[in-house]
Design a protein that fits this description.
Length: 385
């Protein structure tokens, strides 16, 4: 076994949230190591960035690097939602200009490169298998292990590290995405198209390099029932759409990709020696295209906490966002009445009022109110799934 090195902060996950946390801590002179299991060499989902990321990227001094990616402008979203006839929503009224369609692998790699150049130690192709408490530090087990004073959980929707350290992931739904990428022979227009359907909703969006992604968001059981992970099942479902099917022209690249898209809130998102950022802390429905925006904002807030800020205020900020998100999510799903009896839509009506309630009890469990953590070291050391 390799002897563990030391670091002020170990960050697990090199998506936007982990990369920007590393960037800000490294700029502040902290000794940071970031573990990312991938090498950014395969498709990453989540390619539409809303206009609100523009001021964030400028504030992070990343605007020039972002410009070098030559992302495609995104001017509007058309949606057949609540009515069969599509309606356009233009970004023309956004104070931040238009949004973007990016190649997410290149976007995420750009952020992590910036962190590395600011002084963070970035380990690519490095999977963390376990985090456990050893005396007053956290032992991060990977090919290059480290003993860190603080660990940042930036593992995305799985929130693996925080859960192993005692946090509770409260899941709002069982949303799953079944996506396919098509190579097309002309540059696609920069519009996103959304179409509500009885079992969920479809999404078509241009990707750089003459590609388009088409995805169905539905509940997990529907993937099994309609064999959505198979080309035949997915193509049959697409054939039942009114509009999106017309956009699925070109040559399919690769398999159908099925991935969880469930919303959740982590209770709590911060402990005395760890903090969760981005999707690990709070994951929203991709319908909002708000995940990357939140990842960047929560990374900035988490870096402030780790540089001496208030942990309780961080939790309050995320909890407040979650309350507003649930309200908005219920409102937007409520706009679609045509499929009110279908299981997908009625499940969303039932879930919209679900409270996140166990705050005080959980805060004691992770010890951020000054109380000692109630979990044993053995529990903390639970292997990460
Ligand atoms: C289908 C789909 C479509 C989406 N569309 C959009 C969109 O259009 N616009 C938008 O803004 N958002 C979208 N989102 C949401 C957006 O992708 C996320 O909110 C965003 O990626 C969150 O960033 P993150 O850094 O928190 O997590 P992630 O981007 O998920 O990054 C987590 C990282 O942790 C790494 N990791 C995990 N476990 C380990 C481990 N044990 N060791 C080392 N590394 C590990 C992973 O490899 C990954 O790189 C979409 C999400 C889904 C599922």
């Amino acid at each position: 076994m390799t002897a563990a090195g030391r670091a002020d902060v170990a960050i697990v996950g090199g998506g936007p949230a982990g990369a920007v946390t590393a960037l800000l801590l490294a700029r502040a002179g902290r000794d940071v190591v970031l573990y990312e299991q991938s090498c950014y060499d395969s498709l990453r989902l989540g390619e539409t960035l809303p206009p609100s990321v523009n001021p964030l990227l400028r504030k992070l001094d990343l605007w020039e690097r972002f410009g070098a990616l030559q992302a495609m402008p995104s001017y509007q979203t058309a949606s057949a939602w609540g009515a069969a006839e599509p309606a356009d929503r233009s970004f023309i009224f956004s104070p931040h200009g238009h949004g973007w369609h990016v190649d997410r692998a290149r976007f995420d790699a750009m952020l992590v490169d910036a962190a590395e150049q600011a002084g963070a130690r970035v380990l690519r192709g490095a999977r963390v298998v376990k985090v456990s408490r050893v005396d007053a530090r956290l032992h991060v087990e990977a090919d290059e292990p480290v003993l860190a004073a603080t660990v940042v959980d930036a593992t995305g929707r799985t929130a693996r590290i925080a859960r192993a350290l005692g946090a509770n992931r409260v899941q709002l739904d069982k949303l799953v995405c079944a996506a396919r990428v098509f190579a097309i022979d002309s540059e696609p227009r920069g519009d996103t198209f959304i179409e509500a359907a009885p079992d969920g909703w479809w999404y078509a969006s241009p990707l750089p390099e003459q590609r388009r992604i088409i995805a169905l968001f539905t509940d997990a059981h529907e993937v099994v029932r309609s064999r959505l992970a198979t080309v035949d099942g997915w193509t049959d479902a697409l054939a039942r759409t009114e509009h999106v099917g017309d956009l699925a022209c070109g040559v399919p690249c690769g398999k159908i990709r099925v991935t969880t898209s469930a919303s959740h809130e982590l209770e709590p998102p911060v402990g005395h020696d760890w903090i969760a950022v981005g999707d690990a802390a709070f994951a929203v429905d991709p319908l909002s295209s708000g995940g990357v925006d939140f990842a960047l904002r929560s990374a900035s807030a988490a870096a402030d906490v780790l540089l001496g800020g208030d942990r309780a205020a961080y939790w309050t900020q995320i909890a407040d966002e979650a309350i507003e998100y649930r309200r908005l999510r219920a409102e937007i799903y409520g706009w679609e009445h045509r499929f009110a009896d279908a299981a997908f839509w009625s499940a969303r009506r039932l879930l919209s009022g679900q409270p996140f309630a166990r705050r005080a009890a959980t805060s004691r469990a992770v010890g951020i109110d000054g109380a000692a953590p109630s979990r044993s070291t053995e529990q903390d050391a639970a292997a990460l799934a």
